[in-house]
Each structure stands twice: as C-alpha cells, then as structure tokens.
Amino acid sequence: MMPLRCRAPLRLALSMALAGAAGQAAAIVGGTSTTAFGQVDSGVQITGNWVLTATHVAYGVGSLYGNGYGSASVAAVYHFGEAGFPADDLTLLRLATAIDAPALALEGTVLAPDTLSAPIAVTIATGSNQWPRGYGATWLQDVWPAFDADGSGPQPAATTNWLITATATLGEPYVQPGDSGGGLFLGHVSDSSSTLLGITSAAVTFDNGLHASAFVQLASYRAWIDATMAADPADHQQALWVSSVPEPASCALLLAGIAVLPALRKRAGHPTPARPAC
After folding, report:
1. Are residues 127 and 183 in contact, defined by beta-carbon separation less than 8 angstroms?
2. Which residues form the Peptidase S1 domain (predicted)?
3. Which DSSP state fits 163?
4. Distance (Å, rounded) from C-alpha 213 to C-alpha 272?
5. Is the pLDDT confidence value at 96 over 60?
6. Using 50, 70 and 90 to split pLDDT, how confident is the model at 246?
7. Phi, psi angle pair for 238, to nearest 5°
8. Which of 61, 105, 67 is nearest to 79 (CA)?
9. Among 90, 110, 75, 103, CA closest to 43
10. Per-residue pLDDT at 53
C-alpha cells in the first residue's frame, strides 16, 4: 500500500462557525461503541490534572471537563498559538481537581513527511458523539506539516503538524464534526493502554467524496507541553514520553494480508474541504 500523498493546493471551505451551526453530528463513521478509552472525550486526560484537546473545542476557565473516570472544572487553559483553526490546533487544560484515571504515554518520535515506508496501524477514539465512547481501527498514512487554505493565493500556509489516517479505500472509520479533542492511539487496540499519538483536529474530504481524518501530532509539540506543565505551580505532574513507533521493517510486517493499491494517490484525488471535527 502506498502512503497517501496529496500535496495539491487546498481550500478551507468551512469555518468553525459554519461547522458549529450544522449541529451535533454522528459518531465516528464506522466506529464501534465501547466502555474502554475512559480518558477520552472532547479532550484526552494524560495525567491526573492535565488534559490535551484541540484549541477550536474552545474550553475556557470554569468549563466542565468529563470523561469515563469522572469530571472536574477547568482551572487553567494554555493554547499553543492564537492563529485560529487549523493552525497549531492544540491546547492544554489543567483541571482544578484531579480525576483518578490511568496516565497515558505520549509518543515522542516526530514523524516527518515522506518518511513512512508503509502505513502504521492506529486506532481512532472519541467520547463526544458516541455513547459511552467509540473507536475504530485504521492506518496512519501521511504527515501534513502545513495546510494551505488558498493554494498559491495570498494567505500563507497554516502550520498544522497533522497525522493523516485513512483505510486502503479512504473509507471508514473516519471522524465527523463533534469528534474533536479525541485521541489517536498506536496499534489496532481496544483500550487506551497503548501510546497516544495525536489529538483529533479535522475531517478531510477529497474531491471524489472519499474521507480521511487529521490529528495534531503531539511529538511536534513536546517541548511546549513539557514547559507549560512545568511552569504551572499548581502541581508537579509531567507528561510521560516514550518511543513506540515501529521501525520500517516492523511497519511492513503490519501490512501482511492487506491488499496493495498502487494507484492509491490517483484514486484519492485532491483534498477539498477540511472541517474542524468539533
């Protein structure tokens, strides 16, 4: 299977306001309900008091965050940037009181464009749109460090650091509006004991109607995450970073029995609207 390569000019056709006006959407398309992935909702709890989410989910101080382990009010909000969706769509929340949940390990290896020798098995998880939450197995296909909303137009490309997932046919499972802040985990897994790779940011639709999903790559923001948590005087919690991404040879083994599609890039076409998965 060839990694997905779609570098043609892109158009950001839907704003956050328009996506919000569309109302609550269905759960992950092709997802399965589960009682697992308890740390995941419209944000992913990584330690007792700290949650990673997408900036456009728009948590504020005093907001209530809840997941399968409990709920707590948000005491502090830290955005990586203020440029607006889709740029650097990552926010840290500090909860006023700890939620007693297992800590999650974060992937510390930065995956760069054109470095995936083969797709990597991953699992999408969400808690906002599916009761009690939903998940689905798919493949990490590509890395988009930037998203150019108007192609060669006057607007500069936005830094996104997106991990792009899709099945062999660019079909299910994929995220929908309402799934933002969910998590991307390494491997085809059925609970959150695996490594967290990314935070759900956007739904991508190609010009032939096929779908993929975009997740903010956490390893790209490792220094900021560590510095932000260390600078907050309320606690001494720190993120746990590991290196779990398979080597290229192991990636190839994961593809045993998967049909090879040499024309994947041509069949996928160009990405058209990218919608915040809020």
Report:
1. no
2. 39-225
3. E
4. 13
5. yes
6. confident
7. -135, 155
8. 61
9. 90
10. 98
List, as own/partner pairs, every contact residues 12-15 make where C-beta atoms lie below 8 angstroms and the sequence separation is at least 24, other chains included. 12/86, 12/147, 12/149, 12/150, 12/273, 12/274, 13/272, 13/273, 13/274, 14/273, 14/274, 14/275, 14/276, 15/85
Say if CB 135 and CB 123 are below 8 A apart: yes
| Alpha-carbon span 97 to 99, nearest angstrom | 7
Six-digit token pair at 262?
């040499």
DSSP-assigned beta bridge partners for residue 213: 165, 203
Query: SS3 for 267?
Result: helix
Please check whether residue 272 is in contact with residue 212, taking contact to mean a CB–CB distance below 8 angstroms.
no
pLDDT value of residue 83: 78
On the question of pLDDT at 250 being above 50, the answer is: no
- pLDDT higher than 50, residue 24: no
Q: How, if at all, do strands 240-242 and 105-107 pair?
A: parallel
- Determine contact, residues 96/72, Cβ cutoff 8 Å: yes
Mean pLDDT across 182-198: 97
Place of tokens 């609207």: 273
| Positive or negative torsion for Cα 229, 230, 236, 242 | positive
CA 80/CA 88 separation, integer angstroms: 7
pLDDT, average across residues 167-193: 93
